[in-house]
C-alpha cells in the first residue's frame, strides 16, 4: 500500500473535475525465470518519499519551469498509488498495468507510470492500443530489442522490440544510447530496419537535444519512456547498470519540455530505479525532480 503520495498530491479531485494527469505505480512486471524483481519494486516509494520535501512548496516559483508547477491554478494531477502486482505473476501483472492505463486514458487524462523494471513498459504501451497512434521516445542507455531472454519475450530486455509489433506505434526515437548491454548486431539492425531513430548520448552531448527531438513529427502524440540509467551515474547512481557518459539532469528536463512543445505528451513512464544502489537518496531526488518537470510540461500543454 502506498504510504505517501507524490508531492502530497490528492488521489482524486473534487466531484466533476477531471485531472490532466494520473500517476500510478507498479512494482512488478514480467520477471525472468530465477530473477528477483523485488528491489525494483521499492523504487516508486523511494521517489514519492524524495518528493515530500517539495510538497509544501508546490505553489512556489519553480525556476526549472519558469513559474509555479500548476501556474497558480488548482492542482490538476493526482496520484492513485500502487496497483497490485506480484513477483513472477507475469500475465496477471501485465493485465493489471494495461487495464489501469486504459482506465486513465478513458477519463481522459495522461497516465504516468512508476516502475518497476523495464518490463512494465510493454503492458503500459499496450494500454494505448484503443487511442490514436503514438510516437515512442525512449530515453535509455540500452536498446531493449531482444526477442527473448531465457524463453521470456516480455522481460526488461524486450520492451522496444514488443512495441515495434504494436499496430498503434507510429514511430520510435531511442536516445541516450551508450556503452554495452544485451544488444548484439542483429538487434541493432532490426531496430534500424523497423525505422527507429537511434541517437547516442555522445550525439546529445555534442549537438544538443534537438538532434533527437527533430525526429518526432510536429503535433505527434508522444509517450516518453525513461529508464533511469539513461542519466549519468554521477547524478543517478541508483541503477543496476552504471555506465559513464550519460545524460545530465538539465538535458533530460529540456528534452521533456521540448517534446511537450513539439507534440503532445500522451503518457510517461519511469523505470529501473534501483534504490539499494542509491547514494544518500540522490537518485530518488533526481527522479522526483524529473517527474515534477514532466507534470509541469503536461500542465503547460494546450
From TrEMBL:
Record key words, sorted: Hydrolase, Metal-binding
GO-annotated molecular function: agmatinase activity; metal ion binding
Keyword field contains Chloroplast: no
Record has NADP as a keyword: no
Source organism superkingdom: Bacteria
Pfam families, per the entry: Arginase (PF00491)
Any single biological process term in GO: putrescine biosynthetic process from arginine, via agmatine
Record family assignment: Belongs to the arginase family.
Protein's UniProt name: Agmatinase
